[in-house]
Amino acid sequence: MQPAPRLEPPAVVPQDPPAFPVATSKGRLLRDRIASLLVRVGGFAVVLSLVGILLFLLVEVAPLFRGANVSGARGLSSSGAAPAVLLVDSTLARVASVAHDGRVTVLDVSTGTVEATLAAPVEGEIVAVGDAPGESTFTALTRDGRVLVVPLDWSVAYGADESRSVTAVLGDPVELPLEPGGAQVRAFSARARASGAAAAAILSDGTLAVVRRQVQVNEFSGERAEQTWRSQIPAPGGVTHLALDSDQRQLYGADASGALYWWELTDEGVRSPRISQTGSPITALSLLVGGRSVVVGHADGRVSIWFLVQSGRAHAELVHAHEIESQGGAIRAIAPSWRKRTFVALGDGGEIGLYHSTSERTLWRGGAGEPQALAAVLAPRGDALFVATASGIRAFSVRNPHPETSLAGLAEPIWYEDYAEPTWVWQSTGGSEEFESKLSLTPLAVGTLKGTFYALFFAIPLGILGALYTSQLMDPRLQRWVKPAVEIMASLPSVVLGFLAGLWLAPRLERYFPGLLLLLLSAPILALAAGAAFRALPARLRGRLPAGAEVAVAAAALALGASVSIALSAAVERLVFGGDFAGWLHNNTGMAYDQRNAVVAGIAMAFAVIPIIFAIAEESLSNVPKSLSAASLALGATRWQTLARVVLPAASPGLFAAVMIGFGRAVGETMIVLMATGNTPIMGWSPFDGFRSLSANIAVEIPEAPHGATLYRVLFLSALLLFVVTFVLNTAADLVRESLRRRYSGS
Fold first, then answer.
1. Where in the chain is the domain with CATH 1.10.3720.10?
2. DSSP assignment letter at 568
3. How far is Cα 129 from Cα 86, in angstroms, rounded to an integer?
4. How far apart are CA 108 and CA 141, in angstroms?
5. Who's near 184: CB < 8 A, 6+ residues apart?
6. CA 373-379-380 angle, 5° bins
7. Do residues 190 and 140 lie in contact, with contact meaning Cβ atoms separated by under 8 Å?
8. In the 8-state DSSP scheme, what is residue 439?
């Protein structure tokens, strides 16, 4: 019996340790989760930041389009006689009511009680009073035909406890005798200033009487010399209103038939009136600040604004520039603002309207609380409104920070004073207190698109074609040098590019512009000729040349072409443009050549945009699978057919993204536009004019914009427009890119 076989224990096969220990795997999983969480938090933070920026811009812009807030109506004590004119001091401590007999009643605004009663320092009986818009004065007419301009000064004194006391003081009146003879005065107007005074009146005998006094003061001796002119000419019958401007050069009148008259006052006398028909009976007449715009109130409740327009060298006419929607009842009085083109219109039934003439905005409408409002005045700062009624004076608090802005005013052409027609203008500051800000965003938007267009005109062909050649045709050894060199261009500061463009490129381009045109025509021909010449070389010789030799040949040809074009610039200018390109351009096209123009800016901006377009386009083209190109070539397609019908369609999403990102870069460019274009906010697509973009305008204007003022908020509106345009374009670009990707990927 054989013994049982001995069973050996199974051999233990050694196993390799796990690639990643358990502890390491857990740590890696934890790190992945933390990284994923951080990415999500970062994404949400970006979205919240964008939403926060949008909300902030909306909060800053929203007040531009709100109407005026007129509130806090409260009654003051009755001044006795019916008020004809109201005057108020800038601190809103006192308001003065001038009766038809010239008596002045001063009321304390805080308590509503009568502070003092003053008699006008005038000899003789006053039969009528009038106002002088924008001045703390009133005019008075005596029974014997004298017109007086009476200043009302507000004396401010401070007590020991720093309390403020305001006292009304009537100054010495300026007297201008009309000498009407036996005729009666039907309407009058007067103005006075340090350099002189003037008064005009319509007399019952059908004449217009004008008295002007000029005062000259010797600056060395202090002696005063006065000279007085008198004129009396026939006047149209039925004139019921007169208004004399502050310069005492223009006189306006109106009658109940709807005719508006304009007389020009000169040193030689009064010129015959020019007549404009307004279309309905006129019931009120006044002048806005500056004295160039005439506000006309009509019997049907309309308010129209007229001003002089120079239609020729020596001819001016009164034009109907703006129209305010009807208030309902007839307009009985108009009270203009001291600082802006804002005014108050008083209508039948106690209706009150607050309007802005240039923007044609109805800022507020309300009532005086009584059937009839007699007179009104806006405070010098525009922060209060006082309305006189038969029972007393009512005071309103006014908040009206942005009356001049409206969607139409920011986008559509507006007819401004001293302009021949409605136009788009950006002019935020001026040299006088009477200046009206002109804040049209249209020329800035056009300038932004104009600069972007000319930048992309140069950047897209060079960037896309350069990326195509680099990724598909260039020798890989040379490619390793070209790609980083082009991408380094993006690191150049835009301020350096703008400096070079404005101070170096612009004057040279002005001098050699015909040579540039010659180069643009010859460059494609030279490039093709260089390629053909290189291809014509024997294959053995081409094989011995270093990598990228064809690029060097093409570059040499283009450099030679540029040198020849510059050298021939003067000859081309003589042969084609008569020796003066700028003069030929102006005479044949009407366009002027500015040294810092859109071409200069376009070249400089293209230098900043090309690296971005090139980098993204080259990456997209390089990522096209080589199998697609190989399959196309294997099926018999040529190299160019493969590029045009396989590579370009497959890379089109990336190419489109490159163009859109370049577009966004050009839209937001600031420093190059500031330094290379002259920064002129003008309309037009001429490549030889300058322009101003939205971003450059923000950089220029924001340091001088008072916080919360209209200009400040309009600049934020510009930023909002840039934000919205960029967001919409990027969203549309992403949708198009995704659509192209799905189309050409087959998914």
1. 445-511+593-745
2. T
3. 11
4. 27
5. 203, 204
6. 140
7. no
8. E
| Partners of 347 in the β-ladder | 331
* Residues 6 or more apart whose Cβ sits within 8 Å of residue 485: none
Looking at residue 430, its pLDDT comes to 76
Q: Are 405 and 65 in contact (CB under 8 A)?
A: yes
- Quick: pLDDT tens for 394-422: 899 999 999 999 888 899 999 999 888 99
The CATH 2.130.10.10 portion of the chain extends over: 69-409
DSSP H/E element including 445: helix 442-472
Closest CA to 212 of 198, 226, 233: 198
- CB of 715 within 8 A of CB of 661? no
CATH number of this structure's domain 445-511+593-745: 1.10.3720.10
Buried b / exposed e along 3-31 (16+ C-beta atoms within 10 A): eeeeeeeeeeeeeeeeeeeeeeeeeeeee
CATH 2.130.10.10 fits 69-409, yes or no: yes
Residues 353 and 367: their CA atoms lie apart, in Å, by 8
At 598, the amino acid letter reads A
pLDDT in tens, 334-362: 999 988 899 999 998 889 999 999 999 99
Q: Kindly report the pTM of this predicted structure.
A: 0.86
DSSP of 522-541: HHHHHHHHHHHHHHHS-HHH
